[in-house]
Amino acid sequence: MADLVCESWKAKLDTYLDSEVPEESMRTFDTHVRNCSSCSADALARVQMKRAIQVAGRRFTPSVEFRRRVQRSIAVKPRRSFGLAWAFAATAVVLIVGSLTSVYLGTRSGKDQVFSEIADLHVATLASSSPVDVISTDRHTVKPWFQGRIPFAFNLPELQNSEFSLLGGRMTYLDQAPGAHLIYDVRKHHISVFVFQERSLPARLDENSLSPKQLPFDMETWSQGGLRYFVIGDASAADIDGLAKLFKAAS
């Protein structure tokens, strides 16, 4: 019976990972994925495949010179009038396709794509059997662990007299840029804090950047000292804001 139940969940897994599950069903799905090792492993595999496809899709962008060479190769003067019309039509198609490709790539590398990948990283970590590489509740143990592993330094907040607890951290990558991923607990909810160099991000994010409404998590992001911070999780908006304020004060 349990296998049949899991099969019904897995049938909707792609819809869940694309944030297309109705909002009232999202938390129920979150709880099941966390507590079911089979569905967690399947979710992690699909997230990793999704991110690999996204990275592969951005490896090549036609240059201006490349487009010019293509246009020149098809714009040879024809012997008949109908050939000239065909050449103009083909050139127009190349220009249109190039424009659409630029728009598509620009959209994929925009801030919405950054937010989507941050959410993917958060979900993949929760689904992992080993979510952290350094396990410790002591910030003086976790912070030094990142030295030499990422090309920047950052501060962790003091959690005394707060409801937050540190679980540990791990290295992570956003569009091939290395960063830090910290995991915190508050009232049985997991919150991820990501830290990257601002200049390494694939898109510019202003101070008032808001996460897409279709994301199943609350998120706060800001820039401070050349670093970009993301705080994301299924905890309340007040808890997300509270942890963000602790990081801002520590930095």
Task: Provide structural commentary.
Strand 5 (218-224) and strand 6 form a beta hairpin. 50% of the residues lie in helices and 18% in strands. It has helices at residues 2-10, 13-17, 23-35, 37-57, 64-74, 81-108, 111-127, 139-145, 237-250, and strands at residues 134-135, 165-174, 177-186, 189-197, 218-224, 227-233. The termini are far apart. The protein has 251 residues and is α+β, with helices and mostly antiparallel strands. It has 9 helices and 6 strands, in the order H-H-H-H-H-H-H-E-H-E-E-E-E-E-H.
Protein topology:
Blueprint: H1 2-10, H2 13-17, H3 23-35, H4 37-57, H5 64-74, H6 81-108, H7 111-127, E1 134-135, H8 139-145, E2 165-174, E3 177-186, E4 189-197, E5 218-224, E6 227-233, H9 237-250
Antiparallel strand pairs: 1-2, 2-3, 3-4, 4-6, 5-6
Considering the chains and any ligands shown, give keywords for the structure.
about 250 residues; alpha+beta; 6-stranded antiparallel β-sheet; 9 helices; globular
Q: Give the terminus-to-terminus CA distance.
A: 51 Å
Shape: globular
Q: Could you say which structural class the secondary elements and strand pairing correspond to?
A: alpha+beta
The main β sheet shows up as: 6 strands, antiparallel
**Rg calculated over all Cα atoms:** 23 Å
Low-confidence stretches: 93-109
Number of strands: 6
Helix content: 40-55%
| Series of H and E elements | HHHHHHHEHEEEEEH
How much beta, percentage-wise? 15-25%
User: How many H/I helical runs?
Assistant: 9
List the strand order in the largest sheet. Answer: 1-2-3-4-6-5
Instruction: Provide mean pLDDT, rounded.
Output: 76
